[in-house]
């Protein structure tokens, strides 16, 4: 029964630890906006507090001894309960005070966010973070037969983390409001407290001499062993963020996809600390380098389809690296008396890996893109199970370096030569294009990859060979065409490219094209993609009377293509979260939509920051038209809630129109917006248009798009629904009523992403 008590307590504590993080993120979203700076700040805060909890567990146990530390921790639990009651109290909570102190500008509100999170859950999170090292150390001192190797409890801890990770998006968030989630968490914290008290009493009831003699007195781990722990923990942590960013940005921005890499990360801990067999560990160590090579090939060839196969390859390689690194940590675990130090150094490695990707890499690789993911893959190729045949890094000979340099030169020559013989068709989705891509990628990188594979048994040389392939890949223009500009910040990588046929200049973020402009067209640029003149937006501005379009607000700048519809006498305001997008859109060397608008004498104001937070500062009844562009598959949920729609409508003039771009490969937003409109008081009127361009229009840069119009009355939409015959002949747009069923409303305290997921027969 004793191991069961400790295992259940560890399980519950870890589950609560992974529940509170998304809960706090959801709490902050409508308060401070959804900027990546906020998320990065939260992540750094949680990792720092987790490290502080591990440091507390190590230092307090070392200074006080196990028995006194258990007694002291009871006072810490009491302080947590008091602090948590204060945070839950309605009028007495300091949270509203902290919110009022948040900076009132578009910069990252780092200090205010840290203060808000610290007040809300700082103390409970700190105490929860101490659970794993403390309870394992306590259990090691009980004298139980299984306490000689208490590390098996770490598997129970990670199983709880996995449950908390999966339970929140799949079970809790779709069913409970934010207030109900807080009370569930509170109940879990109080139940957890009772179980920790029970574990502490087990230790306190043991005689002091028995407790202190339950563990040995082995020497401290040496410096290089500690460094190895840190490195083995940092590499999977960095790779976790790298593979998550790549899969959810460069492959497909699928909602909830971030859960899968983190789940595999936790599963690897569960497996290796639950009596991981040496034979399986060695087998994984042999397979993983091969998987890494295939992943490098997908990066070099920009492979994204079929998504299931490519995504599985990335996740399999990542899982293999986690099993190897974490398996090495599990096999090198120290005796129980050094358990807390072991977990502290592991935690430090995890924090360093996360900090590198979240904060250091965006500044360090500002002009070169997402380098941290391939860099982590190269480093992962160095890690092998101990005992496997391998060459130390410092033992590399000059002939080995020469071989890698020859491989690099050969690869660069192929990258530069092959495109002259094999050109890609304009339509990259055609069967001919697929064949050309396979042949081109195979010639450029397949042969060098086969040569690199011959070095797979020599980790250091193999890693250098992979580096040579990746460096050679930098000379390839890829499927997106020639890169004219690339910029990296906390919001991701934004690049300006010239299409392979040279006809278009495009703005690309991940796999999403945020607009394009014809490169071979003189005069003012025409709007392309989903803002095309023969599309829903062109129809909207052509149909509305001039006197009803005085002020226009646009959420999402992109290339600024919609500014082509601006006319003298109007005022346009763009709300954009990414400063890099603003700089690129304003540079006429790439896109001329905004500069052409200014030449016509139309003022275009740029407002940086989270759109909802910035719109709240605009006076009511300001805009005649508001355009909201959800052009990415990963939509910001806080911009589609009941409170958000009320905000948009309040900023419209009495006859104003709200236009929402809802094209999405995975989510059907039509019923949701219809329900939100019906819930509004008084109910709003909505219409929907799915525009599928003809082949001639596609050649002119037009793309498929889905739009919804929202207005206070049907008469406000009358000019759009029943345009003149002349306009109807030029732009045939059908705005239909939305058929929807009863379902949940998204609110600031509740959102059910799964209920708006497209059914298979809805997918295009």
Question: How is this structure best summarized?
Answer:
The protein is of the alpha/beta class and 764 residues long.
Overall description:
- This protein is α/β, with parallel strands linked by helices.
- Helix 23 links the parallel strand 8 (623-629) and strand 9 (652-661).
- Helices cover 56% and strands 10% of the residues.
- The chain has helices at 2-32, 36-64, 66-88, 95-100, 110-129, 131-140, 152-172, 178-205, 208-212, 223-251, 259-272, 278-301, 307-331, 339-364, 372-380, 398-421, 431-453, 459-473, 536-543, 579-585, 593-599, 611-615, 642-651, 670-679, 695-699, 714-721, 725-730; strands at residues 482-489, 492-498, 504-509, 512-518, 551-555, 571-576, 604-608, 623-629, 652-661, 685-691, 705-711.
- Residues 90-108 have low confidence and may be disordered.
- The strands form two sheets. Strands 7-6-5-8-9-11-10 form a seven-stranded mixed sheet, with helices on both faces.
- The chain has three domains: 1-215, Growth Hormone, Chain: A; 393-473, no CATH class; 524-762, Rossmann fold (3-Layer(aba) Sandwich).
CATH class of the largest domain: Alpha Beta
Beta-strand portion reads 5-15%
* Basic shape: globular
Mean pLDDT: 81
- Percent range of helical residues: 55-70%
The CATH homologous superfamily of the largest domain is termed: Vaccinia Virus protein VP39
N/C terminus separation: 55 Å
- Examine the coordinates and then state which fold CATH places here, giving the name of the CATH topology of the largest domain: Rossmann fold
The profile of the biggest β sheet is: 7 strands, mixed
* Low-pLDDT residue spans: 90-108
Radius of gyration: 29 Å
At CATH's second level, what is the architecture of the largest domain?
A: 3-Layer(aba) Sandwich
Instruction: Please give the number of β-strands.
Output: 11
